[in-house]
YcxB-like protein domain-containing protein (Carboxylicivirga marina), 181 residues
Amino acid sequence: MDIIILDIPFKKEDFLRISWMRWRIEWHKTIKRIKNSSIAGLIILILGIIAASDDEPFNPFILIGIGLMIIPIFVFSIMFFSKKQYKSKVNKLAERYEKLKMDASYEISPDYFKYQDSEKTVDFKWNTFSGYSFYKNLLIVKLHNASLANSFIFEKDESNIEDYHRVLDLVKAKLDYIEMS
């Protein structure tokens, strides 16, 4: 396979859109965790109520169930209120990158994955990635033990369809598919 070289100019709108997609992916993961915790809390609370007896004035399952149902409310409110702060930080970062002309360059080969912009150059061996996923029209290449913010994202659109498929073919050959959780 040939080396794939992609030079991508910085576009503020694209950066903001992809950053917002990252937020939505994390938001959906959090909603799933909140639902699971609430269901577990409800089940434990019901079991605690069923198992309660007049001989025992206090059943710890009731307290645990209530706790598991209250914690998701706090997590939901933190995520909800941090949304505005996230948008503000991303906008400031986009302004900074626009001033720096933060054009990105990717060099992708069967042996390595290289990313370069005006601030950094990073070389990765393929074994530093945990796999790849899809979200809508995005190809997400994930690093081991890294958040989505530190993943590499390639967008499929009409202007780069050929490059996208070349990258996708190489990524499929080198990495395992990971279901978005």
In short: The beta strands are 4-8, 104-108, 112-116, 121-125, 129-135, 138-143, 152-155.
